[in-house]
Amino acid sequence: MVKAKEEQIDEELLKKAEAESKETEVKEKKEKPSKEDIKESKEKVEIKNKISGLSAEEIEQKKKTILEKVKKLKGKVEETKTEDLKEQVKVKKKEDMLVPLEEYVKAGIYLGTRVVTPAMKPFVYRRRADGLAIFNTDLIDEKLKEGIEYLNKFDAKDIIVVCKRQAGWNAVRMFSEITGIRAFTKKYPAGNLTNTNLPDFFENELTIVTDHWLDKNVLNDTLKVNKNVLMICDTNNFSKGADQVIIGNNKSAKSLGVIYYLLTKGYCKAKKIKANIPDLEYWTGEKELK
Q1: pLDDT in tens, 6-49
Q2: Which of 51, 109, 197, 251 allows an S-S link to 255, with CB 3.0 to 4.6 Å?
Q3: pTM of the prediction?
Q4: What CATH number should be reported for the domain whose range is 98-283?
Q5: 269-274 long-range CB contacts below 8 Å, 24 or more apart?
Q6: Alpha-carbon gap, residue 275 to 262, rounded angstroms
Q7: CB burial class (10 A; 0-12, 13-18, 19+) of residue 262?
Q8: How many other C-beta atoms can be found within 10 angstroms of the C-beta atom of residue 273?
Q9: Cα–Cα distance between 63 and 70 in angstroms, integer?
């Protein structure tokens, strides 16, 4: 019986020993570092050794160099503020205008009528409280530039300009005298471009129309013979038949003065016509021409 008890004790001790052995084995496996851990540890040790090999002054100098590089990069990637950018664009636009914006405003070139045709709707900025449509001044300037460029393609002998509205007579006459382009004010003799039997018959390549409502006779004749049309359009004008359009107030002497002044300057420059072009004030009627 004593022997049986001893055997039982030995068996329990053996089991306990085996359990402790397994527990130790598992613990060792957990504590054993992986290959990745060993590699990362080695890299850290290498970096630490490199840093420890430097003096305090060298470490401080490297830190200073890195901070300076960061500062330079920050300056390069710094974004321009939206408001500053808008202001720069506005200034650039003003500098590129044919005349200062104030001159357009003073002449009332941006003032339209209460009627807006579908063709002119894209150029209207807004309506005033009294119902008058307002042209976008940036677009006025752009269309004038386009009009000048288009006009410069033709020789003076092949161009005619018509203006039945009295408000534009002085500007059109000055334009005609300086450029040599034939002008018709007050009245255009119907059939001059179409009827070969008329003694005053002539052929042209371009007709400048000041207002298609009043100058419809010459516009119709020009279209009949398939010639080109450069048309000044107010908000109530239809641009049908025009090859090139200039937008703006074509009812006012000041506004038409600005338009024909710029056409004169642009044409003379392109064709190298040496002429003494009066100041803008003469064209708008603010000063009398001596």
Answers
A1: 555 556 655 665 666 556 555 555 555 555 555 556 565 555 55
A2: 109
A3: 0.68
A4: 3.40.50.10490
A5: 270/148, 270/152, 271/152, 271/156, 271/179, 273/178, 273/179, 273/180
A6: 14
A7: buried
A8: 14
A9: 11
